[in-house]
Inverse folding.
């Protein structure tokens, strides 16, 4: 393992020990949730060419499935979370299936519409607890379980996805992004491959939702909040598109940063927006690509 | 139906709005032959390729390959039957190296189904195919991103993508366009070798001289209609072809 990899792995595992208060540990957990969503966004956007704003859709579906199983059938969270991850991903994929032939902004619009639609349906029909949501769900035994369930999973996913996109299967996905017509001409059913990719991304998102549901012990309409769709994009931009490690680091930085700006009260959003706008306008390419360049410059540096 | 006919096109038509891009075109492609298709710009050559390979749906007519109806099948299924095409404007996967470009067709269900476990490492097979179309194995070109390639190599990569699918029929949509004379000269032996190995080819071309060297039969199109089909020597003499090309009467 190279030095940056070791630093990333150790850094991520040590963060919770380094901060003192439980409030900050909770913030790290929220950052991890966003890191999951950012990973899923980066994977779809950069390696499959699907700009998916369905983060809120995934968390909502995952959260509600997990919540319903827990409150209606009393299933423990070790069962509800896996079911919500797989089942939610199936549901999300089925809903996104009709728009898979679409590319770019069109897919983005449809995937952004679903969370709005689902939230309104729950509100209007007053099902699944309506606007009050479902309270009193099972929660994790303590904060260390919460932390050390999600942190290793982030590592697993980051490196797992990175391996996947360099495997032959990943090559097909990247080829679909580069030129879907040529992939069609190569006897490959692109809808089937896109579906698998969306399923994977949706599973990551649904896991986040299910995890959130048991973290708060409550599911509500806020699981469909558009933050879950938009924030991952910001994190990806900050961390570096297409690096997979970047979005994770971006999510951590942005969440911690947004907490630190809390003292500024309402001005927080202003600072936040200014920094984001600056990053986009300056076209920095993200933090991780920048660090990678610097690292490779110094790695071969020898004293003469 | 003749047993040697590998592809049969019967009265195919296609209109885009009011324009008849292809009007009742029929031809038979014999196994192991090279059929050249020529015609002025806009005569419907590329549309015909798109119709055969399923990228455009025909309005009417029939296309058969070895008893199977091709019309209505999606492009990837037609490629799965071994009828593959190159694109006029090369469509490489820019962010992948040349070698990895070929991993995609090698991952296809056609290859998995026919060769499957015996295929071995896709990267190695990919290098073999690249060598076949004139990439030097030991040079670093196969490892470079396709976005850095000159046109000549992109065209070879197009051909390599087809070969990776182990096809029966390759339809080359203007493989020589945009290439220098020396690049074309280097490509001709590759095509001759394919033909000698029993491959059936359709070559849509503007480079008439090179095409007439290679092709067994040539079909001429104008305004979406087939105006002639014969051996190359007869086509050169044909008055109707001169008329279409030069406008002389």
């Amino acid at each position: 393992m190279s030095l940056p990899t070791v630093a990333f792995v150790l850094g991520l595992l040590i963060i919770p020990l380094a901060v003192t208060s439980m409030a900050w540990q909770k913030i790290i957990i929220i950052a991890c949730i966003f890191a999951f969503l950012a990973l899923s966004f980066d994977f779809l956007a950069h390696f499959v060419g699907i700009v998916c704003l369905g983060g809120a859709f995934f968390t909502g579906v995952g959260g509600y499935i997990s919540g319903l199983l827990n409150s209606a059938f009393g299933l423990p969270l070790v069962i509800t979370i896996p079911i919500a991850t797989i089942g939610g991903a199936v549901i999300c994929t089925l809903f996104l299936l009709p728009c898979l032939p679409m590319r770019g902004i069109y897919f983005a619009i449809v995937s952004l519409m679903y969370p709005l639609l689902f939230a309104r349906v729950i509100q209007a029909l007053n099902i699944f607890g309506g606007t009050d949501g479902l309270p009193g769900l099972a929660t994790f035994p303590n904060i260390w379980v919460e932390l050390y369930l999600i942190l290793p999973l982030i590592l697993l996913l980051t490196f797992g996805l990175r391996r996947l996109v360099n495997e032959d299967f990943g090559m097909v996905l990247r080829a679909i992004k580069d030129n879907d017509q040529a992939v069609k001409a190569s006897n490959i059913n692109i809808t089937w491959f896109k579906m698998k990719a969306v399923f994977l991304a949706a599973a990551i998102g649904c896991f986040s939702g299910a995890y959130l549901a048991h973290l708060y012990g409550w599911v509500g309409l806020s699981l469909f909040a558009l933050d879950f769709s938009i924030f991952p994009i910001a994190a990806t931009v900050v961390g570096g598109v297409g690096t997979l490690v970047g979005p994770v680091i971006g999510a951590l930085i942005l969440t911690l940063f947004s907490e630190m700006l809390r003292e500024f009260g309402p001005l927080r959003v202003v600072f936040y927006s200014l920094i984001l706008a600056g990053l986009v306008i300056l076209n920095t390419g993200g933090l991780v690509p920048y660090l990678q360049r610097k690292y490779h410059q110094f790695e071969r540096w020898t004293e003469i | 139906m003749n047993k040697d006919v590998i592809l049969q096109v019967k009265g195919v038509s296609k209109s885009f709005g009011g324009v008849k891009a292809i009007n009742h075109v029929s031809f038979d492609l014999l196994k192991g032959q090279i059929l050249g298709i020529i015609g002025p710009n806009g005569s419907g050559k590329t549309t015909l390729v798109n119709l055969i390979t399923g990228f455009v749906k025909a309005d009417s007519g029939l296309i058969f390959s070895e008893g199977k109806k091709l019309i209505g099948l999606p492009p990837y299924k037609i490629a799965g039957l071994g009828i593959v095409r190159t694109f006029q404007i090369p469509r490489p996967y820019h962010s992948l190296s040349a070698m990895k470009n070929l991993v995609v067709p090698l991952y296809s269900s056609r290859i998995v189904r026919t060769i499957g476990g015996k295929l071995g490492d896709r990267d190695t097979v990919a290098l073999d195919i690249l060598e076949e179309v004139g990439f030097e194995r030991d040079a670093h070109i196969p490892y470079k991103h396709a976005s850095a390639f000159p046109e000549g190599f992109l065209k070879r990569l197009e051909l390599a993508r087809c070969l990776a699918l182990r096809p029966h029929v390759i339809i080359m949509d203007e493989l020589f366009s945009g290439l220098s004379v020396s690049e074309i000269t280097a490509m001709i032996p590759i095509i001759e070798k394919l033909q000698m190995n029993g491959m059936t080819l359709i070559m849509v071309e503007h480079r008439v001289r090179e095409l007439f060297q290679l092709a067994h039969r040539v079909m001429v199109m104008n305004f979406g209609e087939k105006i002639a089909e014969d051996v190359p020597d007869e086509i050169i003499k044909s008055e109707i072809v001169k008329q279409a090309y030069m406008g002389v009467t």
Remarks:
- The longest strand of chain B covers residues 5-16.
